[in-house]
């Protein structure tokens, strides 16, 4: 176990703390823990690279930690009426499709390298920003800007959809190249 993997595990541990805070209406507490989780996301990848501590475990845990954090946050905020349900459906569906695709590739014994595309990294940033600004709007309602939040929602939706299609096309390409 190395420092980057410990940071990733800490992000996974923060997920239920964030969700419990949200469900209890403790938005300030939730945003603090969410920011810490986001920082660990950037820090674990950075440290893995500079300390040359990339591991197979980390390549699986990091995206799972991101998906747990994002999916749980979107679902909780959607249930609370803070984030629109349609956006949550798009975000969670994309993650479900990715996990389904990875499962199909595994069942077909097709090896794959867990490496996110650039569009997926941008998607993750927008998803984090969506949750962050949704929380900010709850903690500081006087600074709520519906137009800006709506723009972030739509950008998040578009990047999430584009990223989903990117993964689908990459999966199809892997399946087709394996048949040859």
Concise structural overview:
The chain is mainly alpha-helical and 180 residues long.
Structure notes:
The protein is mostly helical and 180 residues long. It has a single domain (3-179), classed as Four Helix Bundle (Hemerythrin (Met), subunit A) (Up-down Bundle). It has six helices and no strands. The chain has helices at residues 3-23, 27-50, 56-79, 85-107, 118-139, 146-179. Helix 5 packs antiparallel against helix 6 (146-179). The radius of gyration is 17 Å and the shape is globular. It starts with a helix and ends with a helix.
List the keywords.
180 residues, mainly alpha, Four Helix Bundle (Hemerythrin (Met), subunit A), 6 helices, 82% helix, 0% strand
Q: Compute the separation of the termini in Å.
A: 39 Å
Number of domains: 1
Overall shape: globular
Per DSSP, the total helix count is 6
CATH second-level architecture: Up-down Bundle
Stretches where pLDDT is under 50 for at least 5 consecutive residues are none
Characterize the main sheet. none
Which helices and strands occur, and which strands form pairs?
Blueprint: H1 3-23, H2 27-50, H3 56-79, H4 85-107, H5 118-139, H6 146-179
Helix pairs in contact: 1-2, 1-3, 2-5, 3-4, 3-5, 4-6, 5-6
């Amino acid at each position: 176990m190395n420092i980057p993997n410990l940071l990733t595990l800490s992000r996974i541990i923060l997920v239920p703390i964030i969700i419990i805070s949200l469900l209890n209406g403790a938005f300030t507490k939730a945003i603090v823990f969410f920011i810490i989780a986001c920082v660990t996301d950037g820090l674990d990848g950075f440290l893995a690279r500079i300390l040359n501590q990339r591991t197979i475990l980390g390549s699986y845990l990091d995206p799972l930690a991101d998906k747990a954090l994002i999916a749980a946050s979107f679902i909780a905020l959607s249930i609370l009426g803070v984030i629109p349900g349609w956006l949550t459906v798009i975000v969670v569906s994309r993650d479900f499709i990715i996990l389904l695709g990875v499962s199909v590739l595994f069942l077909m014994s097709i090896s794959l390298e867990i490496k996110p595309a650039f569009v997926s990294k941008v998607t993750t940033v927008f998803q984090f920003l969506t949750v962050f600004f949704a929380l900010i709007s709850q903690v500081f309602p006087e600074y709520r800007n519906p137009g800006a939040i709506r723009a972030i929602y739509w950008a998040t939706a578009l990047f999430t959809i584009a990223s989903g299609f990117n993964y689908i096309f990459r999966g199809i390409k892997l399946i087709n190249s394996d048949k040859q």
